[in-house]
Amino acid sequence: MKEIFSDGFSDIIVSRGMVLIDLFHLIPSPDAPLERVPFLRIKLPLKGFFGLIETADTVRKHLVEVGVFEELPAKSGKAPAAEKKAAGKAKAAKKTEAPAKPAAKPAPAKKAEAPAKPVAKPAPAKKAAPASKAPAKGKKSAK
């Protein structure tokens, strides 16, 4: 297997069902302390990229657990140490609490009723056609 060293990702692009990951080297530059210079592009299908994310997340969690790496601060702006303290307090509180009862299932939503239609004026009654005179029972018709 070939091994490649990179200082990081310079760009990640999604295009036509593929994920393109550009790797870079940090190189000293007279204009800046270090310059990011892209040198290799990796192409992965979306499924492969999501597999990469899951694997990387598993490794990250393990490194945090064993203390090799400190969890990055959340976007709230709190320092990592403050977050660890808060997480520790929450964990301790959770252990002392009684297990939560499962929430009741919400009642099924009622179907929305159609808005009432305006009542139409009844059509004028039609005059009934004259009924043909049928012979009464027991009487013979005259011919």
Would you write up a description of this structure?
It is a single chain. The protein is α+β, with helices and mostly antiparallel strands. It has a domain at 8-93: Transcriptional Co-activator pc4, Chain A (Roll), CATH 2.30.31. The chain is 26% helix and 22% strand. It has helices spanning 46-65, 80-96; strands spanning 8-15, 18-28, 34-45. A three-stranded antiparallel β-sheet has the order 1-2-3. It is globular. The relative contact order is 0.07. The model is unreliable at 89-117 (pLDDT under 50).
Shape: globular
- Tell me which CATH architecture of the domain at 8-93 applies here: Roll
The CATH topology assignment of the domain at 8-93 is: Transcriptional Co-activator pc4, Chain A
**Percentage of residues assigned to helices:** 25-40%
Order of helices and strands: EEEHH
Query: In angstroms, what is the radius of gyration?
Result: 39 Å
Explain briefly what this protein structure is.
The protein is an alpha+beta fold and 143 residues long. It is built from two helices and three strands.
Question: What topology does this entry show?
Answer:
Layout: E1 8-15, E2 18-28, E3 34-45, H1 46-65, H2 80-96
Antiparallel strand pairs: 1-2, 2-3
